[in-house]
Amino acid sequence: MENRKPLLEVRNLKQHFKVSRKFSVKAVDGVSFEIYPGETYGLVGESGSGKSTIGRSIIRLYDPTGGSILFKEEDISGKMDKKTEKNLRMKMQMIFQDPMASLNPRKKVLDLIALGLDIHHPKMDPEERKKKVYDILDLVGLSHEHASRYPHQFSGGQRQRIGIARALVMNPDLIIADEAISALDVSIQAQVVNLMKEIQEKTNIAYLFIAHDLSMVRYISDRIGVLHFGHLVETGTTEEIFENPIHPYTKSLLSAIPHPNPVTERERKSMTYDYASSGIDYAKGVLQNVGGTHQVLATEEELQRWTAVG
Ligand SMILES: Nc1ncnc2c1ncn2[C@@H]1O[C@H](COP(=O)(O)OP(=O)(O)O)[C@@H](O)[C@H]1O
Ligand SMILES: [Mg+2]
């Protein structure tokens, strides 16, 4: 994977919000990671850690305060020319937690899914438009009859399929899924995640999968980034993170997951982590390589302490 070119490169991204004349919230404060074609990168962290802000900055709902974002080797973090912006609007798509909020209740599914086509290819032949939508309905496991129905006639899981269909119609290279399945029942979550995996196998699309629930992230992600207070504290393959967590925040997150096996569940010890009293200053750490693609935000001293045997 490493000798391929990344699809998305986020370098030292900062997103600060001015909340008063004197104060600003450093929602994202120097985050770097990359996503390769066809890969799923899971972004995890507690509520308020900056996950949504990262997603929104990447798709340029915000102007980044600092750092750079490269998408398909083009800088999309500053002022974009028309061609770059068009490429971004077509080839990067986002799906949200509440698909209903973004689905116009008075429009039929056909027109909802075709919205991107109508914006970017307004002169498309109506038959071709319909065929494209039907092909996407096949891909997301909905039937052609569904095209003439309205959003309220669908279940939560089906609505999320419509949301995914809407994103897919542009044939994107990257989908940012921000808590896209968090509101669904667990069994439905699994169906939607499996669908996303199937689509990935067929299309080689990449996902930035944002979630606070680690069990689904573990299941879908190739690599994971752990976010805390706007800093990426640890990143690595799903295996590296789950088998050998190094940062105390990652350890506390993982220790909070219940084990399905009652025997090991009885042995499980929740670890608490309090940044304020930890003596750690995220601003002083740097991302240190600890083998493979595994990196931890730490000072030299912290890294030695956290990786000491025994
Ligand atoms: N537009 C905004 N203005 C001011 N503060 C914001 C804004 N958006 C997010 N924040 C703050 O930035 C931090 C990160 O928020 P967010 O990215 O939504 O976290 P997450 O998605 O991980 O829950 C929070 O402290 C939040 O209150
Ligand atoms: Mg969020």
From TrEMBL:
The species this protein was found in: Proteiniclasticum ruminis
Pfam family, one: oligo_HPY
One Gene Ontology MF term: ATP binding
Single biological process term from Gene Ontology: transmembrane transport
Family: Belongs to the ABC transporter superfamily.
Highest taxon, organism lineage: Bacteria
PROSITE patterns: ABC_TRANSPORTER_1, ABC_TRANSPORTER_2
Name of the featured protein: Oligopeptide transport system ATP-binding protein
Keywords: ATP-binding, Nucleotide-binding, Transport
Domain ABC transporter intervals: 8-254
CDD domains associated with the record: ABC_NikE_OppD_transporters (cd03257)
Entry keyword Transport: yes
Keyword Ribonucleoprotein: no
